Task: structure prediction
Amino acid sequence: MMGSSAFSTGFVILCLLSTSVLSLRFDLQSGHTKCIAEDIKINSMSVGKYNVVVPSEGHPPPDSHQITSRVTSPYGNSIHYADNVESGNFAFTSTEAGDYLACFWAPEHKPVATITVEFDWKTGVAAKDWSNVAKKGQVDVMELELRKLEDTIKSIHEEMFYLREREEEMQDLNRTTNTRMAVLTGLSFFICLSVAGLQLWHLKTFFERKKIL
Result:
């Protein structure tokens, strides 16, 4: 029993380290845009769904409660687009590493309407449809957990390499910035000395011309 509990705890910790689950509810005013960013590494699965919260249950939402959504990659490539909808979903495997943007826009309306949107965004192992895997493979509970654990370990391994690459990029950027700052500081010091020297020369010439010196 103790081993099973430790296994479950360890598995939960691994899942938390290797996946990203974003679930939120936000208000969007008509005529305005709200964007949400998610840092996703390359070759990572991602799924999302969103829907407008109906003001009154049992009644259709008013015409003002429709939104336009767009999901773009770090380089601005469009992944998902839906215009004037009440709900939608998207799924993709990332081909670029960096911040992906999910933007929601509500058409301008008079008077201004406030739209409540529910948004769920999952990446990594959390985005995989394990129930579908279990149905197709006819696997038992233990085998399914082992498959989840295997995918989680792979995801952690890839995440470690991704973080290492980002760290190396930041170190290169810091070194480049420090070098440029040193050159700029030296250049600024040289310019200051040159200006001071020119001022002294000008003053000396002026005083000699006026026969003060």
